[in-house]
Design goal:
mainly beta, Laminin, four-stranded antiparallel sheet, 0% helix
Length: 179
């Protein structure tokens, strides 16, 4: 799945399959300007910053069990969001500090370091990486991903895929080759 925020005409947090199909709104009320998003892949939670409502909130992948982690004026200066173990990590653009927020007790906020021009934060740790399994977009014997001549996108499961073409090409009637 692909998770993303949108604060156009109707602010929301959404999810869809990697090929763009099955687009679903998971949060569309009491939300104004969601600017950063992080996933807890193990427990299947979605965290986001809303800089207009000055809040950090969480829901499960279906949009249920919504909770506010923390609120306050300091939220309007946050950008980027990552989750690891018991904490959320973000950047305070006002003073360029990396903050750690306890995701179960939003009052436990700690500045960890200062970095010039920091706009985003990511946590890379082996335990946060899902184990790779065989999937529909693996290269075929000719080196084509999923048998697609240009782009292979996973669909509703790791066993299904959709082929797409680069700009200027159209998908052939076989659903795999680009012309």
């Amino acid at each position: 799945k692909l998770f993303f925020t949108d604060y156009g005409n109707v602010a929301k947090v959404e999810r869809c399959d990697m090929d763009g199909m099955n687009r679903t709104w998971i949060v569309d009320s009491k939300i104004e300007q969601p600017t950063a998003l992080a996933l807890d892949l193990i427990n299947k939670y979605v965290y986001w910053l809303d800089i207009y409502l000055e809040s950090v909130e969480v829901v499960d992948y279906q949009g249920r069990r919504r909770q506010t982690i923390t609120k306050g004026r300091q939220i309007r200066h946050l950008c980027g969001l990552a989750v690891f173990e018991n904490y959320l990590y973000t950047v305070n653009s006002d003073n360029l500090s990396i903050l750690r927020i306890n995701r179960y007790n939003g009052t436990d906020v700690q500045a960890l370091a200062r970095l010039e021009n920091a706009k985003e934060v990511r946590v890379h740790q082996k335990r946060t990486q899902a184990a790779a399994r065989s999937h529909a977009c693996e290269e075929d014997p000719y080196g084509a991903p999923g048998g697609c001549s240009h782009i292979c996108l996973l669909s509703s499961s790791y066993k299904a895929r959709t082929c797409r073409c680069r700009t200027g090409f159209i998908l052939g009637s076989d659903g795999r080759s680009c012309k």
